[in-house]
Amino acid sequence: MEKILVIGACGQLGTDLTGELRRVFGRDRVIASDLKASSDVMKYGPFETLDVTKINSIIDLIKKHEITQIYNLASILSAKAEQNAKLAWDVNITGLLNTLEIAREKRVQRVFWPSSIAVFGPGTPSDHTPQVTIMDPKTVYGISKLAGERWCEYYHDHYDVDVRSLRYPGLISHSAPPGGGTTDYAVDMYHKALKEGSFVSYLAEDTSLPFMYMNDAIKATMQLMEAEANCIKVRSSYNVGAFSISPGDIATSIKEHIPDFTISYRPDYRQRIAESWPHSIDDSVARKEWGWQHDFDLKKMTRDMLEKLDNLTFRG
Length: 316
Ligand code: NAD
Hints:
Layout: E1 4-7, H1 12-25, E2 30-34, H2 39-42, E3 47-49, H3 55-65, E4 69-72, H4 78-83, H5 85-104, E5 110-112, E6 115-116, H6 140-159, E7 163-164, E8 166-168, E9 170-172, H7 185-195, E10 198-201, E11 209-213, H8 214-226, E12 238-239, E13 243-245, H9 247-255, E14 262-265, H10 270-275, H11 284-290, H12 298-314
Parallel strand pairs: 1-2, 1-4, 2-3, 4-5, 5-7, 6-8, 8-12, 9-11, 10-14
Antiparallel strand pairs: 11-13
Helix pairs in contact: 1-8, 5-6, 7-9, 7-12
The structure holds nicotinamide-adenine-dinucleotide.
Nicotinamide-adenine-dinucleotide is lined by residues 7-8, 10-14, 34-36, 50-53, 73-75, 77, 91, 114, 116, 168, 170-171, 178-181, 183.
């Protein structure tokens, strides 16, 4: 029976993923950890304060709770990483190497670590970006994720570490706020549409990027981690996609439910980051090797987001 440590559990992905892991494995078999606590994660099961850059603290927790799997979600995201490159490298790379070393020493059996579409850059084919292609990231975050992917593959090939990874696109969720990425605007637009009826986008109207609803991101993660090891041929990170949308597309979709909603555009420094990323992702390798399939498109996601946020905003 697995005993799971989630590092970075209080973030946008961790809040939902920890909840689902607890539903599947049992609340006491999933230990949430983060630099700082969040009540959403703490009230439903065990929580430990942990800094991913401190390997001895991770080892202590692994011994204390007899952990068999680590989900290392701790990260400094794209927009924040541009402001503090050294911190981003420490958290994103030292943190990853700590968890890979722990797995190399056979203290745990399996590691999950997320990569991102930020590993791609302006030289990458931007439509239907293939699994293997030119990768020339121009951001601190993208450079760290690309280096991280190489380390994952290295630890698998040289030390037989069972590490698994997904290149998530922008994630959209109603439950936890995003943590400083370039695609955060999408979540914010749904909140502001309900609360204020208008939104100012920091990306231009037609800036199209790959996105995924959180339900699908959780499904992909659980499916990848449950797959037989011999099905997982890619040990750097898998392309996974759902749909590609721009701020204008989301606004149109919201207007189907809130006709008076208005949007204006004031691109800032994040526009350049977005322009260096792909428009759409070819995830056929993930679909073939471990059966990846998404459930949510833009229309279905918008309906669900507005319904869930409306309940939170207007009914407590
Ligand atoms: P987030 O910023 O919301 O959460 C990250 C969490 O890590 C935070 O709770 C933060 O407190 C914690 N953290 C930071 N430094 C830490 C440290 N030293 N030790 C322990 N915890 C620390 O990010 P997220 O959106 O939940 O992303 C989770 C993972 O998914 C990251 O690896 C991210 O790069 C990846 N990802 C996310 C997206 C997205 O759109 N959210 C897209 C692609 C990839």
